[in-house]
Queue: 2 jobs
Job 1
Amino acid sequence: MSWVLVPLMSLCYRMKGGLWSDKVWGNYLNHVGTLGLGYGTAWVAGYGEHWTALVCMLAFWLGEKVGVGGYMGSLVGADVDDHEWWQKGVLKENDYLAAVVRGVIWMLPVLPLAWFYPDYMVVVGMPLALLVGAVIARFVPWDSGLKHWEGIEWLTGAVYGAWLWYTLI
């Protein structure tokens, strides 16, 4: 039954990215998606019913607030000059490295929870998902009905869910 993590994390990641554009509900659902990613991580680590699940959800939310925009667009072929505030030097030039660093930044608030989550493989998931999702999205010929940005979010969430599922096996 743990295979459900793949579509569920894909949906959560897309919700985080703005699946619904409604100004009121869309903003709330953005947070629900981020908290869902955090809960999925806590659940896989075996703490879904433990108080650290709430801490993991909040840590995920905090890590996501750093910004994830400019490099993702250029990874899927868009001409993007807008970089995130943390993209300096080589991170401005190498979008793949920026994806990995962004995943590490995202997981930094979650890292102290490694004291409770002995399976470090869970913490490796987001840097891996941001990189692999971006690489896959770059080479998928999207039709006009699905934008690259939306596709990269669906794929990144699915890769993260697959990684979490893999850690359970």
Job 2
Amino acid sequence: MRMIIGTYEQAWMLRLPFEDVLFREREINMAASHLTYKERESGIEALKILAIIMIMISHVSQSLLSNKGVLSAIDVSHGAESLQYFTLVVFRHFGAWGNNIFFSCSAWFLLSSKRWDKRKWFFILFEVWTVSVAVLACTIFFVKEDISARNILRSFLPTFFGNNEYLTLYLLFYPIHPILNGVICRMEKAALFRLSSVLFVLYCGFSLVGGTFFYSSIIGWIAMYFVIAYCKEYLRDYLDSIRLNSILLAVCMIGLLAQVSITNFIHLHSYTAGKMFHWAANNNPFLFLAAFSMLQIARKWKWKNAVVNYISGLSLLLYIFHENLVLRTYIRPKLLNYIYLQYGYSHVVAWVVLLALGIFAVSIVITAVYREVFQKYVKAAGNMLFDGLRGIYLAVEGRILRIPEGKNSIHTSQERR
């Protein structure tokens, strides 16, 4: 009989099997999911806000360093020759860092899940499409911007073209996480340690350095998911220590600065070129472990703030809106051009931070209005579309499953035996 324990900590202290611990934690998470934004703990919610600000700073830096529609774009392909330019290169790594914060937060709670919510998944997909098309229409009709045919097509198929990297990855990962959880729950401690260690070394080590072992972002997420699972189950004492996680965070920050500094030195001395952002990857172990340690610190930070929780609840919409293909391709360069023409780039780092914070503030207002006024209609349309597509799929599936099996099929042969 499955034992029910009062808290996750009690279950962990008694060293119950992983699936029993997860069973209890699922109950806790289900109860927490019904709390209003005013009642939720704010530690992790504040971390999510920090993550989205880091991502915005990274994206503004990316526009400035990419030479796409920006006057006097900063070229660091041969190294950063000043402290300001070096800081911008470091900022460029904040995007992967922020993505890893979001993934660590998601993985921490997804490990307690047994199945995926198809309606929730479809609504995220539908909302990404709705926002993408709405921004495209507003830009064409109100801003009078001349959008290329290629970007119009990409705006109509945002997930297909991966316009928002993190959300596309999440939509791929979310349906398979219950399968991964089933595998994890059936693994002994030694087996889980070996698998997570091998995956981590292969895809957060060798693949990052040399691009080997057929790395892809989804494989990197799976590798990190197994690492998080092992840590959550078997390293709980260490995860609960703010001191140890602060040390890990400091080590990772120093490691990241060392990576960027060494890479910059190599570029400045003409040993290579065009690789300044090589370490700005989701599978950079320093960025992953830094994000994971920040999650553990935030998890132990017990406080509540309704405003923080509300803004954190907008994080998905903030990500969709601020990194919209049309806005980042046509509007953000215009803002940077205006800054350059009016004020120059003598304080470019300050301007990047201020512009990112300005985009953050404006995005909060727009996404809050959308959430309070329009989201309910989008959700109703999404539910209708989901029900219609689900009905069509089940009808087709039913017809396919009713096709008689051949005499030589494996299933028929087994029944004969």
